[in-house]
TrEMBL record:
Name this protein carries in UniProt: SalK
Pfam family, one: HTH_67
Domain of life from the UniProt record: Bacteria
Length: 288
């Protein structure tokens, strides 16, 4: 009999599936698709590609929904980016990029395999357990049609599940009174996030901003003088993930323990192949 998975099983499934979604923002394919429209800056490509599901939104909307990017950086590109390409144009370009990326990283045989269709069906079933209220990025993507091709349907479902968890995580960060940069600094210090140099390059902050966030975390007893998490900091980061698991439990409860385990297995295999084929640049994750 299928039972309800525990919260950690949902996190494991998310961790296996999410790289298949997020790889598109590191791959060259999206930039290649948007370049003919004059969208060439890497930040503009990212903001347009991820925000397009919400429509021709303002910088303020994206700052709120993405949470950990500098509003100053976002304001350099939005809302002007929609003058170069409409959201619908960007969404079509994004799906072409996803198709090219997955075929390159996984191979045509994997894309056409029964396992791909099985994974897509499981992920879509999990996504049926997601809820819209309070989750703007998830809700916007949930209004998009499900692609027919299995590999694109899997990417779409992975996107729904990723944004559903991400929206919940933002609520948890706010409850913990971690501002966007404090969240980045503490996650990086845990060794599980991105390295500071990459975050400073892509999130629109400078060294002074980073050191200021470190000082605020030290004042709360969460970071030591060396920039590592204290016991209190480690406890907080663990609590953040546990609470996010709880708020993100419905999709995996809808799928059931057996389905969650099977999706984790299938997605993990595809992700391992993608990682082996260079889905992400080196030296992006860890403390640096």
């Amino acid at each position: 009999m299928t039972t309800t998975p525990d919260d950690r099983a949902g996190r494991h499934c998310h961790n296996a599936l999410n790289p298949l979604h997020s790889a598109v923002y590191f791959a060259p394919d999206l930039a290649k698709e948007l370049a003919p429209y004059g969208i060439e800056d890497p930040s503009a490509v990212y903001f347009a590609g991820r925000a397009a599901a919400m429509g021709a939104v303002s910088a303020g909307t994206v700052t709120a929904a993405f949470y950990n990017f500098s509003h100053h950086l976002i304001s350099r590109f939005l809302p002007e980016v929609w003058d170069f390409a409409s959201p619908s144009t960007v969404l079509a370009a994004r799906m072409r990029a996803v198709d090219a990326m997955l075929r390159r990283l996984l191979g045509d045989d994997a894309v056409a395999s029964p396992q791909m269709r099985e994974a897509a069906d499981l992920a879509l079933r999990a996504a049926e357990g997601c809820t819209r209220p309070g989750r703007p990025l998830y809700a916007a993507h949930a209004d998009l049609p499900v692609p027919d091709d299995a590999h694109l349907a899997l990417w779409h479902a992975a996107t729904l599940l990723r944004e559903h968890r991400g929206d919940a995580h933002i609520a948890v960060l706010q409850h913990a009174e971690l501002d966007p940069l404090e969240a980045l600094v503490s996650h990086s210090a845990s060794g599980r996030g991105m390295v500071p140099s990459f975050l400073l390059t892509t999130r629109g902050y400078n060294e002074q901003d980073w050191h200021g966030a470190q000082d605020r975390l030290r004042d709360r007893g969460l970071l030591d003088e060396a920039g590592d998490l204290t016991e209190s900091g480690l406890t907080l980061r663990k609590r953040l993930e546990t609470e996010t698991d709880r708020l993100d439990g419905r999709p995996y409860a809808a799928l059931g323990a057996d389905g969650t385990a099977r999706l984790t297995e299938l997605a993990g295999g595809f992700t391992a192949t993608a990682l082996g084929n260079g889905a992400f640049p080196g030296e992006v994750f860890g403390k640096g």
